[in-house]
Write a structure and sequence with these properties.
Keywords: Acetylation, Cytoplasm, Nucleus, Phosphoprotein, Repeat, WD repeat. The protein has 570 residues and is mainly beta. The chain contains eight helices and 35 strands.
């Protein structure tokens, strides 16, 4: 693990850290907060959130940031790594009575130096549309709370739209609004549009068009966050019932689901090419899910408490040709990866080339990060050996330690890397490849050998148990008591969490039944990632993690927004 030293040093707050790219440095003069710089007493208040927008003004200083602290909302020019923050001059500041801002989102499509459209969600359920440059409050949605009385958990503009936006609530409902329409003076009447396993979508029945256009009911308990795929076609939602649900947004079809190890899922993000989804939550884990295969391909264990934000770093996601030519990315290449749209010779086409067998081998590494209530920032690399576990490991990156590598040669069976690959052994290859652990120290893998054979048979039948555990010898050597206890206690807790799969009959699914299925594989059935770095960077729980081109932005519940300069960008 990346914790340096012991004792006192462990509790010191880090102001810099090093990865293979170089040194990341906290810029203390670039810290944004309330103008008085007094730490906010955050007891019982909503998480501090940060939103960015670029208004493309001529000065080259087009970045703007918005953040909420308690009852207050601030809008500043963001100077990033270039200049010190001037807190005495917010462009806009608002203090709300009786309700608190909980989340916000800029419309990047319509933003100009003269006008921006900012949506703000509130703890009492309303959504406000404001323009912090023109200082106009344009509209208030769900004003009388007739649509939903519960806290707004997430609000986002629909990608590519100037007028549509989506709002999630702690009631477990999501609503689609159009800024041009009113919310009506009476509670809406709904008509069922589509129903599926643990979700339903209704349209609003009224003579004239009104908000909400659609009402989504998803899972049980709060809907904690949602994220649109880079191409805007799919919607990933994470809920307090512990489920990730991925929908085709336009056709309102359920594409796939995943269940947390235990507890609620709190955050979700997409890889820049839309192939992978990462979630974080109350099981202290980050979980990587393949969009194409609809299955968990790795879990990451580094946090000591709930994971509050996960985000991919599009600027450090690297793709290499077979001659080791690393590029950290020109704008051209990375815009492309970032937006997931088609463009020839782009990073994305290189990523897809990785999946075809006739071209030169391409090596790919995805970088993502997470922050948690343990005040720690973790960075993770998702590498070849995890993405394509049945490939030869010669191209695995240096910081990836694959134990006991007895992977079959490329021709000996298995499936091509692009396919689902339910079976990776062939009659001629009796030794299945071991379970890779990326970036790992010697670490125990709890064996399947002791578990009931019927459970194993079921798992094999459902194609979950794709990986065998380590050999007995390895297991004995690497078996730490502590790790065993952790795995054991996680299993124990998971049996208490209540997942209600079926909305109609409201029957509770026994978590023991989802554990060991493709919905929620056992810990030993998927690779366990170790963080590249895991650093304590704040006094209070962390609530923000955003990757920008020349820096990383984090924020904690005390209301301090920190800028970390990327290597060579100070």
């Amino acid at each position: 693990m990346a914790a340096e030293g012991g004792g006192k040093e462990m509790n010191e707050i880090k102001t810099q850290f090093t990865t293979r790219e170089g040194l990341y440095k906290l810029l203390s003069h670039s810290e944004y907060s309330r103008p008085n710089r007094v730490p906010f007493n955050s007891q019982g208040s909503n998480p501090v959130r940060v939103s960015f927008v670029n208004v493309n003004d001529q000065s080259g200083n087009g970045d703007r940031l918005c953040f909420n602290v308690g009852r207050e909302l601030y809008f500043y020019i963001y100077k990033g790594v270039r200049k010190a923050a001037d807190l005495s001059k917010p462009i806009d500041k608002r203090i709300y009575k009786g309700t608190q801002p909980t989340c916000h989102d800029f419309n990047h499509l319509t933003a100009t130096a003269e006008s921006v459209s900012l949506l703000v969600g509130f703890s009492a359920g309303q959504v406000q549309l404001i323009d912090p440059i023109k200082k106009e409050t344009s509209k208030l949605f769900n004003e009388e709370r007739l649509i939903d009385k519960s806290r707004v958990t997430c609000v986002k503009w629909v990608p590519g739209s100037e007028s549509l936006f989506l709002v999630a609530h702690s009631s477990g409902n999501m609503y689609l609004y159009n800024v041009e329409h009113t919310c009506g003076t009476t509670a809406p009447h709904y008509q069922l549009l589509k129903q599926g396993e643990s979700f339903a979508v209704h349209t609003c029945k009224s003579k004239s068009t009104r908000n909400p256009l659609l009402k989504w009911t998803v899972g049980e308990g709060a809907l904690n966050e949602f994220a649109f795929s880079p191409d805007g076609k799919f919607l990933a939602c994470v809920s307090q019932d512990g489920f990730l649900r991925v929908f085709n947004f336009d056709s309102v079809e359920l594409h796939g689901t995943m269940k947390s190890y235990f507890g609620g899922l709190l955050c979700v993000c997409w890889s820049p090419d839309g192939k992978y989804i990462v979630t974080g939550g109350e099981d202290d884990l980050v979980t990587v899910w393949s969009f194409v295969d609809c299955r968990v391909i790795a879990r990451g264990h580094g946090h000591k408490s709930w994971v509050s934000v996960v985000a991919f770093d599009p600027y450090t996601t690297s793709v290499e040709e077979s001659e080791p030519m690393e590029f950290s990315g020109s704008d051209e290449d990375f815009q492309d990866l970032h937006f997931g749209r088609d463009r020839a010779n782009s990073t994305q086409s290189r990523l897809s080339k990785r999946n075809s067998t006739d071209s030169r081998p391409v090596s790919v590494t995805y970088r993502f990060g997470s922050v948690g209530q343990d005040t720690q920032l973790c960075l993770w690399d998702l590498t070849e050996d995890i993405l394509f576990p049945h490939q030869p490991l010669s191209r695995a990156r240096t910081h990836t330690n694959v134990m006991n590598a007895t992977s079959p040669p490329a021709g000996s069976g298995g499936t091509n890397p692009g396919s689902n690959g339910n079976s990776i052994t062939t009659p001629g290859n009796s030794v299945p490849p071991p379970l890779p652990r990326s970036n790992s120290l010697p670490h125990s893998a709890v064996s399947n050998a002791g578990s009931k054979s019927s459970v194993m048979d079921g798992a094999i039948a459902s194609g979950v148990s794709k990986f065998a555990t380590l050999s007995l010898h390895d297991r004995k050597e690497r078996h730490h008591e502590k790790d065993h206890k952790r795995n054991h206690s996680m299993g124990h807790i998971s049996s208490k969490s209540s997942d209600k799969l079926n909305l109609v009959t409201k029957t509770k699914t026994d978590p023991a039944k989802t554990l060991g299925t493709p919905l929620c594989p056992r810990m030993e059935d998927v690779p366990l990632l170790e963080p590249l770095i895991c650093k304590k960077i704040a006094h209070e729980r962390l609530t923000v993690l955003i990757f920008l081109e020349d820096c990383i932005v984090t924020a904690c519940q005390e209301g301090f927004i920190c800028t970390w300069a990327r290597p060579g960008k100070v």
